[in-house]
Amino acid sequence: MQPTSYKQIxxxxxxxxxxxxxxxxxxxIDYYQGSSSTMIVTSPDxxxxxxxxxxxxxxxxxxxxxxxxxxxxxxxxxxxxxxELIKEATLGSSVRFxxxxxxxxxxxxxxxxxxxxxxxxxxxxxxxxxxxxxxxQYCLSFYTIENVRRIIQKKQEEKLHDEDLETPYxxxxxxxxxxxxxxxxxxxxxxxxxxxxxxxxVKLASLSKECQDLAYRCNCxxxxxxxxxxxxxxxxxxxxxxxxxxLPCSTISKLIGHDWNRFYWQLPFYPRRGQEELFEDLKRIDxxxxxxxxxxxxxxxxxxxxxxxxxxxxxxxxIHGLRQIHRVDIVQSIEQSISKPKCxxxxxxxxxxxxxxxxxxxxxxxNQKLIRLFEKLRNNTTTITxxx
Length: 388
What we know:
Blueprint: H1 6-33, H2 44-49, H3 52-71, H4 79-91, H5 100-137, H6 145-158, H7 168-195, H8 209-217, H9 228-244, H10 249-255, H11 260-266, H12 275-288, H13 294-309, H14 315-324, H15 328-339, H16 353-378
Helix pairs in contact: 1-5, 1-9, 3-5, 4-5, 5-7, 5-9, 6-16, 7-9, 7-13, 10-13, 11-14, 12-13
């Protein structure tokens, strides 16, 4: 069933992100600690300071190094070389020098990689893709037509420079950058099952910096194959972070109050913005809103500007900034909305087909209005015709 309101769109994305996060955690634990032979009970200190991936792979490292040193000379980059390594260790002339636990470990790793790439990762791809389609289809769920009109009118009154104005184009450009990031992650997830079958396999340099750091930290740089699923978990979480970036901003703008400018100073920017630029941003926003719900409007304007200028915007950046100004209350609200289970759509709704069609038509009409308004802005039109 398709969402019939903007509120349901947000709820849909929230719920799918929550479910996907739990699913990633589950299959990650299954990969690292899926058998009793590799189950490790960590101390509280380890759980606090060392990720599960580091703890487990460091325990794998010695056995895998012994296995490769005795049986093989080149890097293990694909499923073929992994199985050849297992075969040589099991039947080769050096079998008596190899610990049987090393062979069992490599067999389990190879089995888990192929199993999850075939059955688990496609489920993640499908769920994230569905969210992405809705994000594209209902673009105005993140930018209302009333806000477009108000901003364009404000530009005409104040004659602001284009580079300083939050327009439908700049807002959509920011959103499409997130869509591009999600598509990149999805592409990696879709292609991984094919890459492990290729002769070239998965080279360490082709993995994310996070996975490369993990390999160096665990001293397993000659076994890039074992980081295939680690890369999948990372890319899936990156995609979810890009989707979630759009969810907390309305919560923050409602609760932040007069702390919005202190919060803006704590937000990261990439590419970097200097102190003078940030100061000018705050001055423009402060001048722009003088009546109405001032703090909420100023906060939303600041967050829109941050999403436009910061090409790597994530929910974690927002949470970190809020902690820096000691607004733990807002952090708790965001974390609660992200973690608590939500209903996607009420299956008991008695909306008939006619009402759903009307809602879809309304959304389509709003999309068309946005396109026409943007065209007028590009053509320097000074008057706005009211759309009926």
